[in-house]
Design goal:
By secondary structure, this protein is α+β, with helices and mostly antiparallel strands. It has five helices and seven strands.
Amino acid sequence: MTTQHISVTVNGEAHEADVEPRLLLVHFLRDSLGLTGTHVGCDTSNCGACTVHVDGESAKSCTMLAVQANGHEVKTIEGLADGATLHPLQQAFWDQHGLQCGFCTPGMIMQAAWLLKQNDDPSEGEIREGISGNLCRCTGYVNIVKAIQQAAGTLNASESAPVLAAATVDGQEVSAEPAAAG
């Protein structure tokens, strides 16, 4: 069988591999890279469990070939957190009980992350429309919507928070307080 050499950046890390031209991106991520957070659900792009970001755009990896990711940047659920610190969406899903069995959760969170990049303050209707390509058979979506709303608020608050500059006095780092308005 013939193979094709690909070079793809996944979660900020460069990977090179020889893959069969028919290998799906979801199987490359799971089987070749061990990133099992991306789930295989329907293999038809209907359920959204396999949702990842390719060059910042939402993509269903069960209908995308690994060779189509050649030269591109892919982000999976494993790349969303900052080390041990959960992404605001991951934390919100936990806080708002936005998951039950958890099978759809990685794809749902990745779709929600893409949605919040497009619209940082979506209405409930916009959230429901934005995640309409991701199916959940357990939750009824109420807590998923609440989680996305919480994350939107958290992300917006962190973007508008004042940045405190650090200063060094006699070799000791001290934080500078924001200047009082007035």
